[in-house]
């Protein structure tokens, strides 16, 4: 519509392309609003049942946003064809169709502005509500939403993977290399909405391991670890039993093992 459509309408109805640009803004807004709504659907779906009142209010706000968006969509699509189609020229006589076209333009511009303002308010309300339901860790994850192309999950214990899907960009990949003893809950909805992919792998052979190490060295990808000496092993085991560990222990055998 931006390129060929406006030019075709301009030639058919003897109008300047600048007079027809009001048609573009509603569609840009519709696309953006539907993108935001998809995200709110995913979050609303996973709101805890114990937050029943917040969930109901969340759904009410979504309903209002959808209703306004549908009104704009109908005006931009159906009424557009009624007043400014590709098959019949505008009639510029005193009682002709041009007057109705002018009224339609005023209506669409006004509806676009009103819908945009109202949708902005609803969006802010939705995100305020989301933040009120979140812990500090959740807020950190929310700030990172849709920022990563891929995640390698190395956790070998039971853990939620929904936050990881939220951090991925559309078409992002979550690769599981940790083996949890208990089955993980797989949230399908975020996979569908973002066309995201989940896969897995066990340890590779010598060749693949060396390729990985070479790649990591080339791009300065280093692990966060705690290097310990041989005489610290017993203390390390005690810390493990108390979950007093932030990074993986790495035992420096070469420098700390004493020869007999």
Automatic annotation (TrEMBL):
Highest taxon in the source lineage: Eukaryota
Hydrolase as UniProt keyword: no
Keyword flag DNA damage: no
Domain Alcohol dehydrogenase-like C-terminal: 139-217
Alphabetic keyword roster: Metal-binding, Oxidoreductase, Zinc
Gene3D superfamilies the UniProt entry points to: 1.20.120.1750, Medium-chain alcohol dehydrogenases, catalytic domain, NAD(P)-binding Rossmann-like Domain
A GO term for molecular function: metal ion binding
PANTHER family: ALDEHYDE REDUCTASE
Protein name as annotated: Mannitol dehydrogenase
């Amino acid at each position: 519509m931006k390129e060929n459509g406006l030019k075709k309408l301009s030639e058919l109805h003897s109008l300047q392309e600048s007079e027809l640009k009001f048609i573009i803004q509603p569609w840009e807004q519709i696309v953006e609003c539907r993108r935001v709504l998809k995200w709110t659907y995913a979050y609303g779906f996973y709101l805890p049942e114990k937050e029943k009142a917040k969930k109901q209010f969340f759904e009410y706000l979504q309903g209002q946003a959808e209703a306004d968006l549908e009104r704009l969509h109908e005006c931009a699509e159906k009424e557009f064809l009624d007043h400014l189609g590709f098959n019949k020229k505008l009639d510029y006589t005193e009682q002709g169709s041009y007057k109705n076209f002018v009224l339609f333009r005023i209506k669409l511009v006004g509806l676009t502005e009103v819908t945009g303002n109202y949708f902005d308010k609803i969006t802010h309300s939705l995100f305020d509500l989301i933040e009120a339901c979140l812990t500090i860790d959740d807020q950190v994850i929310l700030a990172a939403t849709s920022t990563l192309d891929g995640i390698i999950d190395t956790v070998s214990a039971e853990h939620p993977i929904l936050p990881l899907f939220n951090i991925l960009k559309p078409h992002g990949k979550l690769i599981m290399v940790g083996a949890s003893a208990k089955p993980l809950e797989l949230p399908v909805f975020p996979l569908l909405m973002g066309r995201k992919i989940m896969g897995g792998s066990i340890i590779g052979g010598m060749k693949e391991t060396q390729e990985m190490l070479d790649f990591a060295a080339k791009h300065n990808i280093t692990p966060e670890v705690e290097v310990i000496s041989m005489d610290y092993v017993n203390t390390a085991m005690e810390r493990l039993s108390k979950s007093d560990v932030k990074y993986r222990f790495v035992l420096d055998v070469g420098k700390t093992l004493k020869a007999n």
